[in-house]
Amino acid sequence: MRKLFESKVGPQGADSIRENICKLKSLFPEVVGEDGINVDVLNQLIGKELATTEEKYGLNWNGKREARHLSLTPSTGTLRPSQEQSVDWETTKNLMIEGDNLEVLKLLQKSYTGKVKLIYIDPPYNTGKDFIYPDNYQSSIRNYLEITGQIENGRKISSNTESSGRFHTDWLNMMYPRLKLARSLLKEDGAIFISISDEEKDNLRGMLNEIFGEDNFIECFVVRSNPRGNQARKLTASEHEYVLCYARNSEILEPLAAGLTAKQKAEYSSHDEEGEYRELGLRKRGAGSRREDAPNQYYPLYVNTRTGEISIEPKNEDDWVSVLPKLSDGTDGRWRWAKDTVASENHRLLARVVNSRDGQKRWDIFEKNYLSENTKRKIRSILYEKEFNYENATEEIKELFGRAVFDYAKPKELVAHFIKNMEMSSEDCVMDFFAGSGTTGHAVMNQNAADGVGRRYILVQLQEQLRADDARQKVACEFCVENLKPLRITELTKERLRRAAKVVKEENPMFSGDLGFRVYRLDTSNIREWEPDRQNLPSSLLESVDHLKTDRTETDILYELLLKLGLDLCVPIEARKIAGKDVHSIGGGVLLACLAEKITLDQVETLAEGILAWQKALGPAGDTTCVFRDSAFVDDVAKTNLTAILNQHGLANVRSL
After folding, report:
1. What is this structure's pTM?
2. Which end of the chain has fewer CB atoms at under 10 Å, N or C?
3. What domains, with CATH codes, occur in the chain?
């Protein structure tokens, strides 16, 4: 029975560096040698001359190399389930993860790479104040636990004041590795939307050009966020902020399409047996409307003055008149449609008498532009509607909590605007790894109730401690104290999701979609690393016999297995008692795990036969992996016998943990 993980340095998440080297080696074997990557050979293979100067175009800053390295370093943490904090644990597919988003993004790589359709984030703006994100990654998980006060009562913040001399650098170093990891989670037809202010908009765009590619830039949306204007600005009263949008692959991204406004829908005041329509003049208007612009689309149409019938064939009868596309100045114009289109779509045309500029009456041709064909149009780059005003977010929070427990939250309608205008299907995933007040989760639930699409969400938020001595957090602290909750932002995030779900259900009583969420917390791995106490080696050796931590449950270990093996954190899990041991089936039998602490020789045969019978009944589509606790076997004979029985009956992948 082989070990499931062979790492000599302890349990780790996805090894991006090793995977990148393997991909490169499969394409260009001669580039990868025993001394590493031969950059000169790689440059020759891609037809690039060796650089003769250090000067290069691009965005550079002190620490960029380390920031890139951070995105490639695997995590040594895990995500521990918190069922008591969750809502509808057994059925929901939504995730609320508490922890440093850099580590969480690393941990999600195996399970969610290429599976997220839309990412929206509202990262900390670089305003010259401190922001609370880890900046010491020598021991990243321990550092995170110290920052959030979970060990040693430490609280470290990233100093990012303008006087520090690293005003832009610190912010860029914080964002770069997170965006690198986020890109790999996006589907090929996915996109990321990032709210940002003036301070870092240009730097953020330069960074995104490098990570996503300049060709994948979609739009810089301008949001009229503060109609009264920001009076704190020295020379202007700025009313707007931005949302930068990049695609994973712009060539296959569906156009961002917006629904018609009430005013636009009012234009469709006419109707016939095919539906509601508006009249669009068949004559081309604006640029390219002259006859010489499209000579083949200058031709007469014939109208029956008695019946309104339209024909492209000449008619010499008294009831028929010819109609030519004339511009308002009397010169020759052109039709929007070619003759063959008129012939095939004649039923969509109508003719009626109109008044000319000179007061004369004349016949003109119109297209019946049906509402069913125009329910969507390309999304506009300037978002000035009232629902995008950030003051609405404060009102939303007050309605849910009875007070403003969050500052500077984004209105759910802003996030919903991007969600509903992306072409999405049921179970497409929306992610926000700066979840804050939980606006994105609220927007997903609200939009699902509105259009019936069963999107799911993944939210990630640092367990930042609230401080009663901070005037900006006073109201939030009071709410937590009154409701017996720990003083952490994530407690407010989860409460917002619970209350928002209740409101969505009340407003949409027939909605039966997913309004729950599973809570996971970032923590150190359940698998003990070899960290010997050199002053007491005998004790260290005894403790290492069972390298699974004794303060962790079977459920904790089980969900770390899901992450390590690249399975969805909401995958179905069943449990059965076999030979008195709990055996878990994950993903319909793709993984069978028995994490019992003791398996004796006389239990082996019954346990193996029970596992084989259950696996056969499940009938998984792929190969089954069986996992056991390595220290559970009373001796090597028990382990060998169990492995042999399972192997003989077709279960070849038997591993120990």
Report:
1. 0.78
2. N
3. 2-56 (no CATH), 77-260+377-523 (3.40.50.150), 262-373 (no CATH), 539-656 (no CATH)
